[in-house]
């Protein structure tokens, strides 16, 4: 399947919940100082969501203003997150501008929307929603054909049943060969991290156990 570019809408503004500088808590750049650009709005309602405050509200900002704010932190890494960033078409030119500025850019997306138009320099962190998320029917499996070694696939595991489901998708789609990283993350407060670690080791999976570093350090405080 071809992964085609899509022209964004002309009005170069985005609704932004927050822009802040912190440590990346997840993905392959975990622990690295990163600027987060959190876009407002999401069409999904995962039962474990920890950013429901980004569903509505926010501030309209131009792409120019966002890029200027990011530059003020002099970062190396930038993460565009949400909510669901791809629900706003002008996330595409924002991602391109951030790449053009020389940052290492990642995009955290639910996997429910088309990723094919995202700049190839961006590391797309694509969720595959498990049955326990309450949004498994929203998975857009067509996205898998667009994955490259620059991308990452994430499963949030809510139960042993979720784990078995995630393993079946890992095998069915050969995700470890398509993406640079496959991440298994325990749903906070639902799966014991030691249990998940033991399952991964017992099955000798080609995946990375992912902990949410920000929750360990800042204990769910917003803005981290």
TrEMBL record:
Residues 29-220 form the Radical SAM core domain. Binds 1 [4Fe-4S] cluster. The cluster is coordinated with 3 cysteines and an exchangeable S-adenosyl-L-methionine. Binds 1 S-adenosyl-L-methionine per subunit. [4Fe-4S] cluster binds at residues 42, 46, 49. Gene3D superfamilies: Aldolase class I. Its EC number is 4.3.99.3. Mg(2+) binds at residue 51. Substrate binds at residues 23-25, 38, 81. S-adenosyl-L-methionine binds at residues 48-50, 83. Keywords: 4Fe-4S, Iron, Iron-sulfur, Lyase, Magnesium, Metal-binding, Queuosine biosynthesis, S-adenosyl-L-methionine. Its cofactor is Mg(2+); [4Fe-4S] cluster; S-adenosyl-L-methionine. It catalyses: 6-carboxy-5,6,7,8-tetrahydropterin + H(+) = 7-carboxy-7-carbaguanine + NH4(+). Pathway: Purine metabolism; 7-cyano-7-deazaguanine biosynthesis. Homodimer. Belongs to the radical SAM superfamily. 7-carboxy-7-deazaguanine synthase family. Catalyzes the complex heterocyclic radical-mediated conversion of 6-carboxy-5,6,7,8-tetrahydropterin (CPH4) to 7-carboxy-7-deazaguanine (CDG), a step common to the biosynthetic pathways of all 7-deazapurine-containing compounds. This is 7-carboxy-7-deazaguanine synthase. It comes from Stutzerimonas decontaminans.
